[in-house]
Design goal:
The protein contains one helix and five strands, in the order ββββαβ. The chain is 13% helix and 33% strand. The protein has one domain. It is elongated. The protein has 60 residues and is of the alpha+beta class. The N and C termini lie close together (9 Å).
Amino acid sequence: MAKLKSKPCDICSNLVNIRYRIQYTKQGDWVMVCPDCWEQVSKNNLYYRYGGTWKAKSRN
């Protein structure tokens, strides 16, 4: 069974298999966040912008 190549969330640092590329601050820096952090920072946020989804791939 192959393991998934997880990566850390830029906000909480938890290793996750799905991350969203977003902007959520006035500075507009792109970050990769987990679904939990995405849900928190995207609500009622004037600076929020979605830029794509990253999904973990299997390691061979």
